[in-house]
Amino acid sequence: MATTLFDKVWDSHVVRHVQDGPDVFFIDRHFIHEVTSPVAFLGLESRGNSVLYPERTFATADHNTPTINQHLPVEDALSANQLDALERNAKKHGISHWGLGDVNNGIVHVVGPENGITLPGATIVCGDSHTSTHGAFGAIAFGIGTSEVEMVLSTQCIMQSKPKKMRINVNGKLGLGVTPKDVALYIISKQTTSGATGYFVEYAGDVFEDMTMEGRMTVCNLSIEMGARGGMIAPDEKTFEYIKGRSQTPKGADWDKAMEYWKTLKTDEGATFDAEFNYDAADIEPMITYGTNPGMGMGVTKDIPTAESLKGGVETYRKSLGYMNFHEGDTMIGKKIDFVFLGSCTNGRIEDFRAFCSVVKGRKKADHVTAWLVPGSHKVVDQIKEEGLDKIITEAGFVLREPGCSACLAMNDDKIPAGKLSVSTSNRNFEGRQGPGSRTLLASPLVAAASAVEGVVTDPRTILTANANA
Amino acid sequence: MAYDKFEVLTSTAYPLPIENVDTDQIIPARFLKATERVDFDINFFRDWRFNADGTPKADFPLNQEKYAGSKILVGGRNFGSGSSREHAAWSVYDFGLRCVISSEFADIFKNNCLNVGVLPVQVSAEFADKLFAAIEADPKTEIKVDLPNQTVTLLATGESESFDINLYKKDNMLNGFDDIDYLKNIEGEITEFASKRPF
Ligand code: SF4
C-alpha cells in the first residue's frame, strides 16, 4: 500500500496501540533545557524512578542564559538556579550536558542538528514547541509538556494520538530577496495561526527540494505557528551530506545500515493525505507581520488589511492592531523601528548571518536602532569569525553577542522595552513576547538587515538590487 | 504529579471571548524561572490581569467579583496556542480552574491540560457563543460538565452538547491517574522494543 513519509516513521515507533486511546510512542532522541525540565526531574525522583536511557537524552542551557559576559557568574539568581538544576540533574542521571561556555552549547534546535543527534526517520521530542525544526531531516519531531518530559526520562515513551496528515506543496522559483522564512510566513498567513491544528505537515515541491538544510530547518521550525504538531521534509542527498561525519551520527557499517533505511523515507506515489494545499513560489514576497500572532503576516510592500476583509473575529483583530498601535490600511514600509533582533532557532544559523551581512556590508546601522545579533550556537560564532563576517558586522556598527535564545522569549535581560517596535527574525510576535509591552514584527534576516540600516521597515530588494548594479 | 479526580463539575464560569489566546499570555516567559511547581496561580494571565504597577485591571474577567470562584473558563477559538510550556496548564489548575471550554484548542496545550487534571472541553462555535451570551446575561449562570456522560449543559436552559475525549484519557481523569503509571507498567515491552531500534 502507498504510504506517506509520516506514516512510515510514526508506525515504526508505536510500541503498542492502546484501545480507544493513544499510541505508546517510542522516542529516539530527547532534548532538555533548563526551563521545562526541573519539575520533570522532581517528579521522576518523587516517584522513585530513574532515567531509563540516559544516552538518549541531551541537555543544553539556552532559554535563560545571558548573551554577554558568559564567562562571568550568571547574575540573575533565579536563572542561575535553573542552570544549576539542569547541570545537577544531568550529572546525577548520566545525561550529557552542554552548559554555558561549552563548545557545543547553543540553542537546543541549533545544536541538535550540528552534532548529528538529529537523524532522518528518528522521533525527537523536547519541552519546547519549536522542536518541529528537526523535521527538516525527515524526523518526526515535536514539542511536549513537562509531564511528558518526565515520561520520556522514565520510560523513553509518551502517549500520543496519531495526528492527521497534511501536505503543503510549493512549486516554482523564489524571487530575489525571498528566503525560507518568507516561504514559512507566507504559508502561515494563508493557513492562519490555527489552520493546521491537529495535523502533521509534510512540505513537498521544488521550493523545498532546492532549499538548503538550514532553510528547511527554518520552515519546519515555524510549523507550530499554524497550529501543526510538526512539519517534515523527505531526506535526500543534501540531508545525508549534511549529517555525514558529525559527532553523533552513525559511522561505518552502522551508517550503511542506516542509509538503507533512510532511502525508504519518502511518501509513495499515490499515498493520500487528510488535507493538501498548493502554493506558487512566484506569489511569495519578502514578508512581514503586523499583528500579534504569526498568521498576521503579508508581503512587506502591502498595506494592513481591514478587519472586514478577513474571516475571523473583528474584535480580536482590532485588539491586536490596538496593541501594535497600527491601523487598518497602514503601510508597513517606512514605519520607524527601534530594535532589530537577528537570532533564535528560526534564524540564528550561519546562513542567516551571511544573509544579514550581504545587506549591511559597507553600510551603517541607523543611529536610533538598537540591534542584537545573537548566533544560535558557539559553532555558529566560530563560523562567523572564520568567514570574516564579524568584521562586516563591526564595521557596519553592529555588535555580535554570545549564543542563546535571548530576545526570542526575553527570559534573560534581552528585553525589548514597552512600546518599542522591533523587527525580529524569531518566531513569535505575541503580546509581550519580547518583553512586557514590546511590539514585534517578524521577518527574514534580509528584511531585518535592510530595516536596521535604514531605521524604518524596508524592502530588502531595494538594497539587493542596488548592490547588484553597483 | 497527582491531581484530584474529575467526575461531574457544576460551576459558574469566567468568560474570555478572545481568539488565539497564546500561552505567553496565560503565563509570560519571565515567570518560568521556578524549579518547582509552586504558586503558578499568581502570574496566571499576569499582563492581562495586572497593570505594570501591580494593580489589578478592573475590567478583566478574572478580576471581576461577579465571576469569582468559578471553576470553569470559557475561552475563544484556538485557545492555548504557541509555546509548549506546561506552566500554562499548571497556572490554570493552580488558579482553581478544573475545566476550560473552547470551540478549538491548540494541541500541546490540550495534552498538557489532560496531563495535569484540567479537562479541555471542545464544543461547537455555536454552543460556545451560547455560553458567552448566557454568562453575559447572568454571571451567576451555571454550567454542568459531566465527564462520565461526556456532556456539557447550560443549566438555565437545559441546552446541552456532547464532547469527545478518548476513553483512555477519560479513564485517567476519572481516576486521577496519569500516563507514567501506565507506561511504567509496560516497561518490559518498551525495553524489548528499544533493543531493536537501529539508532
Ligand atoms: S530560540 Fe526561541 S523558540 Fe527557539 S528554543 Fe529558544 S525560546 Fe524557543
Structural write-up:
Chain B: Keywords: Amino-acid biosynthesis, Branched-chain amino acid biosynthesis, Leucine biosynthesis, Lyase. Chain B: It holds the Pfam family Aconitase_C. Chain B: Residues 5-125 form the Aconitase A/isopropylmalate dehydratase small subunit swivel domain. The complex is a heterodimer of chains A (470) and B (199). Chain A is globular and about 55 Å long. Chain A is an alpha/beta fold. The longest helix of chain A is centred in the first third of the chain and has 17 residues, at 77-93. In chain A, helix 2 (38-46) packs across helix 5 (146-155), helix 6 (180-191) runs parallel beside helix 8 and helix 13 (350-360) runs parallel beside helix 16 (445-454). Chain A has a five-stranded parallel sheet, sandwiched between helices. A four-stranded parallel sheet of chain A has the order 11-10-9-12. Chain A has a four-stranded parallel sheet with strand order 16-15-17-18. The termini of chain A are far apart. Chain A has 17 helices and 18 strands. Chain A has helices spanning 5-11, 38-46, 77-93, 108-114, 146-155, 180-191, 206-210, 213-221, 237-243, 252-262, 314-324, 344-347, 350-360, 378-386, 389-395, 445-454, 460-469; strands at 14-17, 23-26, 29-32, 57-60, 96-98, 123-126, 140-143, 157-160, 164-171, 199-204, 230-232, 275-280, 287-289, 297-299, 339-342, 370-373, 421-424, 439-442. With 199 residues, chain B is α/β, with parallel strands linked by helices. Chain B has helices at 23-26, 46-49, 87-94, 107-116, 125-137, 167-175, 179-185, 187-194, and strands at residues 8-11, 13-16, 72-75, 99-102, 119-122, 143-146, 151-154, 159-162. In chain B, the strands form two sheets. Chain B has a four-stranded antiparallel sheet with strand order 1-6-7-8, covered by helices on one side. In chain B, a hairpin with a 4-residue loop joins strand 7 and strand 8. Chain B is globular. In chain B, 45% of the residues are buried. Classes of the chains: A alpha/beta (470), B alpha/beta (199). The interface between A and B is large, with 80 and 59 residues. The site of iron/sulfur cluster has 14 residues of chain A, from helix 4 and helix 12. Iron/sulfur cluster (SF4) binds at residues 62-63, 107-109, 128, 130, 344-345, 405, 408-409, 426-427 of chain A.
